[in-house]
Amino acid sequence: MFIHTNGDHQEPIPDIHLLSELVLQYYGTQIISFHRLQSDTEKHIYRVEQANGERWVLRLSPFTSNDRTLLELANLLTFLENQNYPAERIIQTAEHTAVGTAAGWRFLMTTFLKGVRLDYTPSTLALLGAMLGRLHSLKTSTSIPLPKAGMLPAQELTYARQQLVSVASLVPKQLISRYEQLEKALSSIDYCEDLPTVLIHNDCHPANALLMAQGQVTLLDWEGAGMGQAIIDVGFLLSNCDGEAPWTLLSSSHPFQIDEARLKGVIEGYCQHHQLTAKELDRLPDAIRFRSIVFGACHFAAAITEHGGPETPLWWWARYTAAEEIVDRARKYLSIPRT
User: Which residue, 30, 33, 100, 201, could crosslink 49 as a Cys pair with Cβ 3.0–4.6 Å?
Assistant: First the structure.
């Protein structure tokens, strides 16, 4: 048996010894150790230390009839390789497939990227912006099917509204105005679904990229990537140029700050490969807002359920309210007139 269960939840967990057997059988290499990599969604992702000193990355997902996560990721990485776009590369199984199946699991092996974490200097952010612009400029009309991106406004905002509704009867009197503020903000966001679609990374920020030895920036974490609106990527990156990783707690002593030199770096790099239209730029504020307000609404609902009320500062609101100022400053470097 390749899996065991976790208590009463019956959640499948890979057995490390059998993982070694799987890698030997399907990839022909001896393993020294596995190191589980951090994942916000509890994905099974491991850094594989081989006996020859080389490192790979192994992803696993339980095999079910409707789970196509690894198959879609494999298609995406294959497409990027065919386009010569920098990303991790797939290691094929002994059966010459990108994704293997064994004892109730799908698995995908890729190369391990070696580099250093990005700093927030304008020159480095320009490299990141250029890599994002290059991604958005790729021609996607190929025979390789590309998935729809995850975390797009329509489904995320719907989910956030559901979370709010679920706690409506529990909100204490002193927090009703905040509840209503969140409800109104969620309803006012434009889904941007009528805008052109490109291949987006969908989680593009400095902490999700590496600076490689050759001076090139390479993006990591492609699980949520797919077809979506370019401004979803651009907005998220522009709102995360403040020197902190997304969702870092902010306070009055550590506020959200817009650094114009960093914005300029991102935009100038991006525009080397791709240009936003005037229509896209007009909708950019909502592309910036939607993730902050979704996070805030879900955080509020969870806090009501667990503690009866929020206990942390409204740090996500600072990012939400900065959207218009970010776009106003960005316009100076995009050279596109307001419609």
Answer: 33
